[in-house]
Amino acid sequence: MGKLTKRQNEVLMVIVQYLEKHHYPPTMKEIGEMLNISSTSTIFAHLEKLRREGYITWELGKPRTLRILKLGIN
Asked: Burial, 11: exposed, middle or buried (Cβ in 10 Å; 0-12, 13-18, 19+)?
């Protein structure tokens, strides 16, 4: 399993915080707003890395199906 970058850890943590507050996952747009990232393709790349590494899962094309599988602490 690869080490997460600082930004990937930030993405993971804002997802966790959003889930704790709202009890449903954020959309890519909401993640971008929380981290001041305007590019959804950049957010997607971070989410895809987290998915490949086993930190999250989601159903592609369904915006609020994101689930945390484990937390990343490097």
From this structure: buried
φ, ψ (nearest 5 deg) of residue 67: -135, 140
End-to-end Cα, the chain, rounded Å:
11
Report how far residue 71's alpha carbon sits from residue 74's, in angstroms, rounded to the nearest whole number.
10
pLDDT in tens, 50-61: 999 999 998 888
Enter the pTM of the model: 0.86
Least confident of 3-12, 13-22, 57-66: 57-66
Asked if 14 and 25 touch (Cβ cutoff 8 Å), the reply is no
